[in-house]
What does this fold into?
Amino acid sequence: MRFVAAAPLLAALAAPLPAQTASTRPAAPVNNCIECHLALDDGRVSPPAKSMKDDVHAKNGFTCVFCHGGDASKDDQALAHDPRKGFRGKPSPREIPELCGKCHADAELMKRYNPGRRVDQLAEYRSSGHGKALAEGDTAVAQCASCHGAHGILPVKDLRSPVASPNVAKTCNHCHGDAKLMGSHKLPSDVYAKYAKSVHFKAREKGDLSAPTCNSCHGNHGAVPPEVGSVANVCGTCHVVFAEQFKLSPHWEAFKDMGLPGCVTCHENHAILKPSDAYLADGPQGRCGSCHEKGSPGAVAAATMLAELTRLDSETRETKAIVRRAAEAGMEVSRVQFELGKADESLVKARADVHLFRVSAVQKTVGDGLAVARKARKDGQKALAELDYRRRGLVVSLGLIALAIAALILKIRDIDRRRASK
Amino acid sequence: MSSAAPSPGTARLAAALSWIGDRIGWEDLSHVAAKKEVPIHRYTVFYYLGGMALFLFSVQVATGILLLLYYRPSATEAFESVQYIMAEVPFGWLVRSIHSWGANLFVGVVVLHMLSVFFLKAYREPREITWISGALLLFLTLGFGFSGYLLPWNTLAFFATRVGTDVPAQIPWIGPLLSRILRGGADVTGATLSRFYGIHVAILPATTTVLLGLHLVMVQKHGMSVPPSIEREGTRGSLRFFPDFLMRDMVGWLAAVGMLAALAAFLPWELGKKADPFSPAPAGIRPEWYFLSMFQALKYLPAKILGIPGELVGVVFFGLVAAVLVTVPLLDRGASKGRSSPWWNRLAVLALVGAAILTVLALLPARGAGPA
It folds into this structure.
């Protein structure tokens, strides 16, 4: 799991090195590199030149020589590629992080372009699984160019960038889905397939980019799998309430003692499915049974919590059906519907309380929800009774109106008859 | 059969009536009522529309007064007060639903009344003032509908009013000021609600009372108009207004009450969601059915027509239609002289068909949105 996510690297890190000086912004230089490389029409050297049109560095005045050295003012290859002018050709993977870091770790330089830009990417990278492996001589690991690209580097916010939020998982999967490569590192290659089943992935598919992707949990430049003891902290960055409750629960210490990875123990790591109350049950979806034997206090507590949740859920559903029936008949029950929303809130809260693993906490929250649901049920039934009363009243009223109309018609006929007889 | 002596109670009632009659001229009124007659011919049925409109107006006044007892005209309380009327006030649901359904029925009957008067040429001399006051009453009726629509302060009404109050702004020079006066500010706010409330419960009723009074006096003065074709053929006699025609009127009124009660019981008027001025306008915003044709026509107009803003052309066109409608008796000189006026009839049929098509187009969900 060391390289479980090929963390996306900020475009900033991949920026080329100003070969002459890193502390001066380049003045619009002559760049014969692009012209020559395009004219060569060589499948190996022309594409980089073509892709520089949109490159964020090129747009900021950084030319090829800032990374590759040489003399861009010369239109002769030998002079342009003169090693005495610092020409180094294609940097090796081991050189790349340091090369990019020359600018991107330079706070003085970076603030001229973006004062808010972080400059700790290189330090982070060195702490990452990728960085450590690279330092040990493993060049088959991700470095800056692996994620950001080498040429035509786009800002992270550009949706075409491989490290733009919607593209991160696929970018990581380039390597982490490669069975041969992952096999050589003793890592699983089905991470993306598992993630694609997760509730997080499905949320992102619906356009919710706040749902986590690889770098949300693993970091980007400092990508490492969360340690066993820090899983709850990582999940807790979004699931704050659950994490706090879990830390107050008896499981917190027990899991630590048993070396179990917190949230992941019940919810998985990548294939995180939408949880259900069935997690507390005995069945195939049940989670508690793997540690708590049937009939043990833990199993009984799980069953009790499940029964409480089911009770509130079913009573709320039944009440909603009653209130909906009244609303569909045109009764004004919007206040009741609003109040009933509090029962839903209680159910959500009770499900969160499960992470305290204390039956009394769940029972208290469920009790609050049940009180709301029962009051709403009474109001809903009252509305239905009122509806019935109205319709019966209407029948009586229409009967009286029909009688009055009949009486009028008879009277009219009587008058007409008398007039005619005169 | 011998006549029994009246009981003391009956005698006292007769004395009281006599006392009142001496002072208000009861006998004169009875005399007038006895003289009032309704011609009988194949179009007599259309005479009931005027009485029906008057009856529905009375229903609106009565239910409106009852709603006033609980309604609170402010942006913070209006919606909740209507919600309270619908859910808590005994028979509040009935009163509010009858008021809302009644308003629609009232507009429909007023339009039918006007169409029957138009096609039967009842506006011809000497009834021009009756027609003009009636046409103005139609506009007031539409004004009641427009101002009343906003009062529950729900989402649909809020955004429809925003669109509706934008329309007068297209009029050159005075348009923006007119729109501002209507809204009580730059946008629809609580100030607009207060303003519309004032218009709905004070300004329009007062104006309507005056015009309706004039309209009824004119109807009494000139009596029922007989269509030119019937004048040539001759009527089948006449019917005494009181009690013969009035009792027939009452049959219709009772049926209307039954219909309103059934609508209130089975289809209570929806309240919707409280207006939120900061939320985006929901899809499917549209005014009440009687404004739909104008609403749709404005949507179809191009941005510019001969260099003039399309909406301005539309507003001017509707203004002209209204002006023509009011002045029909003065323009249609043929009808005044007892001649038929087929071109006016064709024009009216064309306008009706156009309005009906536009209304249907506005109601169709897929095409209701019309061009952007």
Q: What stands out?
A: The longest helix of chain B spans residues 190-222. Residues 367-372 of chain B have pLDDT under 50 and may be disordered. The longest strand of chain B covers residues 37-39.
